[in-house]
Amino acid sequence: MPTQSVGPPPASRIDVVRLVGDLDDIVITAILGTGATYVEIEEAVKFAMGDAELLGKTGHQLSPAAVAVYDILMTDPAYEPEAEP
């Protein structure tokens, strides 16, 4: 008897583009390769956009897949922190 997968499915390419923006195809493919769910990618984007403090105050930690997405996002110029004037 086949086993059923528990939990939400990995995000689709459309989901990834909707969440992270129209980044290079290599970045999108790398994110898809993490197997992260929509929610995990959404959390990674929040961290990458500077909302880590907000999420951290709740005691919430990123899942391993979300950390992988965050690391990928931080290599893309679109997510580089802006320099303070």
Outline the fold blueprint.
Elements: H1 13-20, H2 25-33, H3 38-56, H4 64-73
Describe the structure.
- By secondary structure, the chain is an all-alpha fold.
- It has one domain (13-76).
- Helices cover 54% and strands 0% of the residues.
- It contains four helices and no strands.
- The protein has helices at 13-20, 25-33, 38-56, 64-73.
- It is globular.
- The chain starts with 12 loop residues before the first helix and ends in a 12-residue tail after the last helix.
- The model has no long low-confidence stretch (mean pLDDT 86).
Main features:
mainly alpha; 85 residues; 4 helices
Number of alpha- plus pi-helical segments:
4
Q: What's the overall geometry?
A: globular
| N-end to C-end Cα span | 61 Å
What's the Cα radius of gyration? 14 Å
Provide the helix percentage: 40-55%
Count of beta strands: 0
Q: Tell me about the biggest sheet? A: none
Low-confidence stretches: none
Short summary of the structure?
With 85 residues, the chain is an all-alpha fold.
